[in-house]
Amino acid sequence: MFTFLGFYFTRRIVKPIHTLKEGTRRVSVGDLDYRISIHTGDEIEELATAFNDMAARIKEFYSGLEQKVSERTSDLERRNRELSALYAIVITLGKSLNLDVMLDEVLGKILSIFGLSMGAIHLWDSQERTLNLKAHRGLSDRSIDRLLEIKSGEGPIGRAVETGAPIFFADHAQFPKPSVPEGMKRETPSDREFRYVTALPLKSKGKTIGTLSLFDRRDDSFSDQDHALLLSVCSQIAVAAENARLYEETKKVDQLKSDFVSKVSHEFRTPLTSIKGFAEILLTSEETSKTLQESDRLTRLINDVLDLAKIESGRIEWHIQPVDLAEVLLSVSRSLLSVAQGKRLSLLTEVPPHLPRVNADRDQLIQVINNLLSNAIKFTPEGRITVSARTRGNEEVQVSISDTGIGISADELPRIFEKFHQVAPAGKGAPKGTGLGLAICQEIIQGLGGQIWCESAPREGSTFHFTLTVARETAPSSSGLAESQRRRSAR
Description:
- It contains eleven helices and 14 strands.
- The protein has four domains: 2-76; 93-176 and 190-242, GAF domain (Beta-Lactamase); 250-312, Signal transduction histidine kinase, dimerisation/phosphotransfer (DHp) domain (Helix Hairpins); 321-489, Histidine kinase-like ATPase, C-terminal domain (Heat Shock Protein 90).
- It is elongated and about 145 Å long.
- By secondary structure, it is of the alpha+beta class.
């Protein structure tokens, strides 16, 4: 009897405890729906009830936490998509300064990001007071005809310009319609290419310069976040469009300037030739000699202006071919030897044996070397001038023309290749130039794919360097230069 009672009371106490233990284990592994069922009418039942309440609260808290994590994750994913979209669009906007190309590419990128197939970009013509179609994707010829030119306030696109605010329009019945020839039916809603339009203004500096229009057959294409992103995109497009437009205007102005300079220079050249001819005939006095010198200087100025205008406008004809650089250096040096000797200067030409040929236009290269060497002679009161060349790896040859002349200050050095900038010191008897020689040299060397720069210090002379690419599959320059070249003309 006592044994049976002991067994009964043991089961009554131990079994609920095992049940509590199992419930704890189940909850600990994430089974928050598990509940304990104990009906002992004592403290163990109360403990089981408290356990079930705790599990319910944990589940409620965990569900709220999961929802918050999910919402936060969705928010981060959305922001990441927005940033990725903005980045992709900014990259697209920066690919080209050609306005039409840039607008077409960015429209394609926007449609791709938002999963659409139809869109258009208009720009505002302030003189004609109309929106002109500049880019479109996915539209039929009929829709393109309707959208080619839109007046302010006309349809959703025109209203976006008029109000400066985004316009969402369901059903495009109010779009400008061409006249319908007799016998042709007007379209019905089922025939229409799109029924929903989102027209957003392109604003730059507070002024609306155009619109971005997106078309769809659905009315749930964009969320509030999408609209916010589209407004940011429109701001970027507006800035890029203005920059591209300013770039095009600058190019036009620069072309007008070049055309003007070229025309004026041509007009001056003919009478100057006559003046110079008469001055040479009358060369019997110092005044006439000065007149001849000034006419020569003005003729050089006009020739330099014409050369520079021709290079900048792309009208120059390049004749790129393998050129014997050593022969050109020696030839130009010989042509200016008497000028150097007249100033009691030493002129040295140092060219290593087997100097490779270079890719260049021979006539343009001669002009560069002649210009740099003439400047060295002009601005060197005494001492020597050295013309040298050396290879830089297997790809380039570097030419250097150094002198012991007046040098150039650190403040002037960055500006020496600017047009019409003169470095010569002011004062009577100071050397005069056109201020275009170095600018022409830079344009020619860059046109040949090389670089040009200068190293100088006041009263320590100057060294001008430029590089040219080595011509492939050509023999080294010969011209009798097999031996080490070091030509020197004594003072």
